[in-house]
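Listing S7. Sequence submitted for prediction.
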Amino acid sequence: MFEEQRLDPSRHNRKAFRCGVEALDRFWAQQAGQNRRRGFGETFVLVEASDPDKILGYYTLAPAQVERVALQPDDAASLPLYPVPCCRMGRLALDLSCRGQGLGSLLLALAVERCLEVRQSIGGYALLVDAKDEVAVQFYAHHGFRRFQDSPRSLYLPLGPQSDRGVDSASR
């Protein structure tokens, strides 16, 4: 059984985690705890209940905003003229030992679920991501994310009622 937890640097073994992407491994080892302390965002980890110190994967969330002109025209039409509040997933990574098990989709579903909770308490239009490469773009597109008009590696998933075709957290 898997559990999602907030990163606890005193408990979670960050040294053993490797995803194979240098920037994501470096962030994990050097910045995740610092970003949390400084209020830049939160990092959430996926662990097995039987071994909660071993990190299987992680994702980070932070507040963000987007100009409506960057979104697809159908989405932008009903939005206000001022910057639209959103959540940004800054990082999503899986340990190399966990590839091909569907845990990336699970992490993404957990992030969407957390954003939906935030939306209920303070609002938020979409979950934003900046994909590292075309493989990541395809992963997010497969889960219902849409490309920004002006940045092909930046994508968003509307969180409102119209987002029913996005990530299905019930599939966990």
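Caption to Listing S7: primary sequence and predicted structure tokens for the chain studied. The first helix runs from residue 22 to 37. Residues 2-171 form a domain with the Aminopeptidase fold (CATH 3.40.630.30).
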